[in-house]
Amino acid sequence: MLSAKAIRIFGLIAWSMLASAGIVSPVLAQTYPNKPIRVISGVGVGGTFDIFLRALAEELTRKWGQALVIEPRPGGNFITAARACADAAPDGYTLCSLSGDNLVYPEFLFRDLGFDIRNGLKPIVNLFFNPQMLVVTSSLKARTLEDVAVAARQRPKTLAYMAPAPPSRLFMEYFNRQYGLDIVGVPFRGGSDALSNLMSGSIHFVFTGAANFSSLIDDGQIYPLVIDTPQRLPQYPDVPTMIEAGYKGALVRNYLGLVGPGQLPDALVTQINAAVNDIMNDPAFRKRHLFDRGLQPANGSTAEFEAFLTQDRVESAKVVQEAHLPVQ
pLDDT below 70 — which residues of the chain? Predict the structure, then answer.
């Protein structure tokens, strides 16, 4: 008797054969969607990515007349969500909202993922770039990186930071080396957890999405120190870039993309891409859910997303190498 795993594998092979023969795609495209769609997310509830995804899902529900059900799959070294996506049936009823932490970094950090991360996931559209900002709690009274260095020397081995992405952690290591400091990295468990720890004083710095910080910056509870964008942001013209701060390492943008299982038919990819672009090009949607949140739209064609991912893999491999991150 075949195991459930074997049945699933044979089912995916059969689906792939039908799709490659052109049998599945036209029928699906004509009737899609005719039932609710599951959206696997690589992040927890309540953060920037989750809030945006739910807004996009609401608009797609209106457009398609079918519910999109968000299924958060955070954790697992960012592998859990990507693997669940790759294992899903490529019928368009499982879509996946994943970042570079899910899509790219695992192949450079783990010897055996248990699935083909490049061919097992089908790019659909890049949604946005999320500028990353290093902020400090106002209790340290630091306004520049030099101020931080002074405070860290006065309080050796007592200051701590959270930074989810390898590029952010690499910058903090660079900063520690540059000034001879010992600011300690603390495991990241999500944007809301990082903010609560920052406000409680458990940590002193967070390097994550700038969209998380606007109200706290406006209230003077935290202060921005540096941003990871190539140029300064219009919203924060006085905040220097990492390059201006002297950083010479690889720069990798933080982003959120929409993908599907690897054998998702091209006809469905095209249809989904068009629907998402239609929503994201709406001026009211862009203002409310992107610009007002400090996010930079990146939507476009599937080919553009594929080209971006190719280059992102090159830059991400450099980050892993420069940071001397261990391969597990």
Answer: 1-29, 189-191
Cβ neighbours of residue 252 under 8 Å, at least 6 residues apart?
Answer: 100, 165, 166, 167, 312, 315, 316, 319
Q: What is the pLDDT of residue 252?
A: 86
Burial class of residue 297 in the structure, from the number of CB atoms within 10 Å of its CB (0-12 exposed, 13-18 middle, 19+ buried): middle
Q: For residue 57, how far is the Cα from the chain centroid?
A: 17
Query: Could you tell me if 272 and 301 are in contact, meaning their C-beta atoms sit under 8 angstroms apart?
Result: no
User: Quick one: pLDDT at residue 18?
Assistant: 53
- CA dist list (Å): 150 to 101, 104, 141, 241: 33, 36, 11, 20
Please report how the helices 24-31 and 4-20 are oriented relative to each other, as an axis angle in degrees rounded to 10: 90
Sequence spans of domains, the chain? 4-129+254-322, 132-227
Give start and end residues of each alpha helix (H) in the chain.
4-20, 24-31, 48-64, 80-87, 100-103, 106-109, 145-154, 166-179, 191-200, 214-218, 266-280, 283-289, 302-322
Q: For the domain 4-129+254-322, what is the CATH code? A: 3.40.190.150
Q: What per-residue confidence (pLDDT) applies to 7? A: 45
CATH superfamily membership of 132-227: Periplasmic binding protein-like II (3.40.190.10)
Residues making up the chain, counted from first to last? 328
Tell me, what amino acid is at 196? S
Amino acid 25: pLDDT: 57
